[in-house]
Structures are given as C-alpha cells and as structure tokens.
Amino acid sequence: MTPTPKLICRNVWKLFGSGADAFARGGIDASRLPGSGLVAAVRDVNLEVREGEIFVIMGLSGSGKSTLVRCLSRLVEPTAGEILFNGENLLAADEKRMIEIRRHQMGMVFQHFALLPHLSVLANVAFPLEVQGVPRDKREARAREMIELVGLAGRETAFPRELSGGQQQRVGIARSLAVEPELWFLDEPFSALDPLIRREMQDEFLRLQSVLRKTIVFITHDFDEAIRLADRIAIMKDGAIVQCDTPEALVLDPATDYVAEFTRNVPRAKVIRVRSLMRAVEGDATGSAFIIDTARIAEAAPLFDGGATTLRVVDAGGGTVGQLHREDVVDVLMRG
User: Fold this and answer.
1) Distance between CA atoms of residues 173 and 184, nearest Å
2) Residue 243 forms beta bridges with which residues?
3) How many other CB atoms sit within 10 Å of the CB of residue 63?
4) Among candidates 72, 139, 80, which has minimal Cα distance to 106?
5) Euclidean distance between CA atoms 128 and 172, whole angstroms
6) What is the pLDDT averaged over residues 7-20?
C-alpha cells in the first residue's frame, strides 16, 4: 500500500522581479514570461512527498531546487500554487502559524552549519527547544539524546571551533532533530565536506533514517549521492521538474533526453535493486547465503566471489521472496 502523502505541492510557481504578483493574478500564462522581465525560479511544480520516504530533489546549479525547498517551508514566498502539509494549506497560514509549524513540525539542515560559535555542542542542540520555551532540564535531556544518536556523546561541552567539519554537521543534524520534526528538509547538507567524510555522513544519515523513519526532502546536485539515499528522485531543469521517479526508473527509462544525459554515466549495478533482478525460488533455498531485496546489485556482486551460483533474497521481515542468479548479476555488471 502506498504511504499517505505528508506534503503535496500543486502548480507552485516562484517568480522574481518587479510586478511578479500582478503578473500572476488570475493565473500564470507561461507564454507571456519572455519579455516580461521576470525570472521563473520555480515553474508549475507538482509533487507529493510520502510519509517516511527520502525524497531527493536534484539538478544542476541554478535549476531551482533550493528555491523550491524554501517555498515548501515558506522561507521564500511562492508566487502561485498550493502547498498542503498534513492537509493544511500552508499558503493560507499567517506568519504566526508558519512560525509554529517550523518550530514544532519541521526540521532544517543547510549546507552551512550555522552553529552558534559561543555556545557548546549541548547548548547548540538545545537551542531550538529553548526558543520553544522548554524548561532547561527537559531540553538538555532531549539534546543529550540527540547528541548520542549522531555519535557525539562525550563532546557536549566542546565548542564548534573544536570540532571537525563532519562533527559540526552532526551537531547541525542533532539540533534539527531535537524538535522531533515530522518533515525534515536538508539542503545540500554534505556538499561542503571532504569526500571521505561525506561518505561517512551519508552512512550516518541512512542509519538515522532506519531508526527514525522521518519524512525527508533532501536537496543535492550529486547523482551518486541521490541514488544512494533516495526512495524517489525529482530532477529539475530551469525551475521545472522534468521527471520524478525511483532511481532505477530514471536510469533505465529516462523520460527526456536531458534525464538520459544526466544519468548516462551512472553504473546500472549501483542503481538496480536486487528485487528487480531476482527470480522465483527453485528448490530448497533455506540454507543458502542471502541478501535483502532492497540492496543494490553492486552490493550483491561480492557475495558470489566464493563460487555461489545463487543467493536467497529476503524481505525486511526475513522471509524468502526470491533468488538472485550469478549470471544475471554478471550481465548487469558487463553492461555497465
């Protein structure tokens, strides 16, 4: 059963320039944009973010992805459209209501960590709870839980200048989780990190999601990062979403030439999941080596090194759902 949408975005536009609101009055006619002096940073975007999924929005620099995520939280005011969060139209909410929603139901992590340099790790993580008026003992207890969750237990008294870049980003993540958000926005949170630390933070992010099952909107320009993290990906170009689908579908069935070019160099083994390649079980497979059905083929390939010809495929509950054959894996690897 498809999860319930947590966030729905309908026909959302963001126009920059003098007279944008007047231009949009009565509906936006895209054919009138050329020569209007207006810039369409977000163009007629429609999307649904399902409860508990990692929804990645990606595109090249200037494609509109960061503007879109700011529209979704109304940090940037959309020019037109409708944004529903838990069924509530955010564009009809007044500023007081939006502040309440951001403080209690949304978490945000951006590329720049924005830690308060004069506060300790504990105080930084507890800060949004202090803004909410939570008593000190309760906010610090919650902050300690989050610090331990992101692997920084023992560094509560350290200051940001005493931490590495990866540790600072962990503090930023802990701070955003302290308010127990229903919806978590992350705008290129790892792009400023070194490649090795970035990989570690991706691992940490996936671990956290396996525990917390948050609804996440994640912005990146890195397709490798997107396919590693995403349940679904929306690719943007010139402010519009050109395709929204699973990583597999984007690579194997691109909707446009732009998407095909965008995904052309992605190795299929890093994208295709075991469940897409498995066959029906033949004979008794209970004693054989196994792999989970959501794993990528690149993760399954090393398991055949010992001479095995099949792997048992299991679901999240451990039940056998199929078999993965060595020759099918080799075929994917050979096709690149």
Assistant:
1) 10
2) 235
3) 22
4) 72
5) 11
6) 95
